[in-house]
Design goal:
By secondary structure, the protein is α/β, with parallel strands linked by helices. It has 12 helices and 23 strands. Helix 3 packs parallel to helix 5. The N and C termini lie close together (9 Å). The structure holds shikimate-3-phosphate.
Length: 441
């Protein structure tokens, strides 16, 4: 069946070593930051997925020369204010919220109209979160009620801003940091924790960034208008992609897995800390530093005595993309798990809060949800023999992969639509599942 995946069997026990493709957040940041550098930057292991490839196509439309082959990708940066394109050029971020939000910041200084659009899912997502700070910088933006398509016109007269980012959104924080690069003076961002790859890259590039750390928030001070050098980078594996296999191993019987060379930056390892609190047998080994980032190998083993969690709120932003997978673990854990302050899940590629609770109910789990929380009543021996059809999930890549993992640990017959959605972030996903022994049709 075209674009429908059929899974009819649970996965048998496995004991394997794998690696997953390059980190998506780092790949997109590398591309935009290199486009604003002066000279040639080279990346190895750049994620070869639709989100990243569409970002490269858009950067080319902005006048940036890019050469990509199987081994590496070269970007010939044109400097901080170097984008060059015709008035009213349109770029298309397709499904990528990260590229869309970040490129708007990078365009703050460009004095030409540019139109940014996206696919159906991205066109439903909120952009007021980046329009507001960019307006304060002096950037002119018109939008479709804070949604795409957006027309942006940057300015030579950018003013530094003081901004409070209290959603815990790394995309918003990075958008402001990129706009700050072209702004004279010091931009200040008071922000609650979110993934900090941009800060680490700025430090590595010796961009003037000072961070004042407080207990619950940080203040970033970025001094603008100083050109930085090129960025050669070997992108480590994506923990968000690795997480599908971490959960598959935990919930399978008598299995072991090693996942090599993963970015284990603390702002991304919430899933490991949460699953360990639930008794998950996971260890990070061979830790090393790489250009300001942390890298390691993840060792995981099947765990039969998983217990519920009352998830501390502060862990959410460190596991934001992995929460639907963690909910699946909670569904098979002993006791009642509780997740609060998770309203941001409604603003992802799909409404992941709604779809996750619908999914759990479908497989027979009792849940109680509000617009900002989810309670899951776990069933440790949960299994099924039923037939399920998974469709209408906005082609959300992470929901597709969640359904695959659920089918392989719960049994039953699953017809999962929109198989191509994996291409957004992880085209190798199904190949790796087969390597672990999954029977996919
Ligand atoms: C990302 C930040 C997160 C995350 C997304 C990638 C990034 O989004 O969900 O997949 O690379 O900065 P928010 O900033 O909306 O939390």
């Amino acid at each position: 069946m075209k674009n429908i995946l059929l899974i009819k069997n649970k996965i048998n026990k496995f004991n394997k070593k794998i690696s997953v493709s390059g980190d998506k957040s780092l790949s997109i940041r590398w591309a935009i930051i290199s486009a604003m550098a002066l000279g040639r930057s080279r990346a190895y292991n750049l994620l070869d997925s639709e989100d990243v490839n569409n970002s490269l196509i858009a950067l080319k439309k902005l006048g940036v020369k890019i050469i990509k082959n199987k081994k590496f990708c070269d970007i010939f940066g044109r400097g901080l204010n170097g984008f060059s394109f015709k008035e009213n050029t349109t770029i298309n971020a397709q499904n990528s919220g990260t590229f869309a939000r970040l490129i708007l910041g990078a365009l703050a200084r460009t004095e030409k109209n540019i139109i940014l659009k996206g696919d159906k899912s991205l066109s439903l997502r909120d952009f007021s979160r980046v329009i507001k700070p960019l307006n304060q910088f002096g950037v002119k933006i018109s939008s479709n009620k804070n949604r795409l398509p957006i027309k942006i016109r940057g300015t030579e007269y950018l003013r530094p801003i003081n901004y409070e980012e209290l959603k815990g959104s790394a995309q918003v924080k990075t958008c402001i940091m990129l706009a700050a690069l072209n702004t004279p003076g010091t931009t200040k961002i008071k922000c609650v924790p979110s993934r900090d790859h941009t800060e680490r890259l700025f430090k590595h590039l010796k961009i003037k960034l000072k961070i004042n750390k407080h207990k619950k928030y940080q203040i970033l001070n970025i001094e603008g208008c100083k050109q930085y050098g090129t960025l050669n980078y070997n992108i480590p594996g994506d923990i968000s992609s690795a997480s599908f296999f971490i959960v598959l191993t935990l919930l399978s019987k008598n299995s072991k897995l090693i996942i090599k060379n993963i970015n284990v930056n603390k702002s991304r390892t919430g899933i490991i800390d949460i699953l360990k609190k639930m008794n998950g047998k996971i260890i990070i080994r061979n830790r090393k530093k790489y250009k300001g980032e942390d890298i390691g190998d993840i060792y995981v083993k099947s765990t039969s005595n998983l217990k519920s969690i009352n998830c501390p709120k502060k862990m959410n932003s460190r596991a934001i993309d992995e929460l639907p997978l963690i909910f699946l673990v909670a569904a098979k854990a002993k006791g009642t798990s509780y997740f609060r302050n998770i309203g941001e899940l409604k603003h992802k590629e799909s409404d992941r809060l709604k779809l996750s609770s619908k999914f759990l109910k479908m497989i027979g789990v009792t849940v109680k949800s509000t617009s900002n929380s989810l309670k899951i009543f776990g069933i440790p021996n949960l299994e099924t023999k039923k037939t399920y059809t998974i469709k209408n999930f906005m082609k959300d890549h992470r929901i597709f992969m969640l359904a695959c993992i659920a089918s392989l640990v719960l049994g039953g017959t699953w017809k999962i639509h929109d198989k191509n959605s994996v291409n957004t972030s992880f085209p190798e996903f199904l190949k790796i599942l087969k390597k672990l022994g999954a029977n996919l049709k």
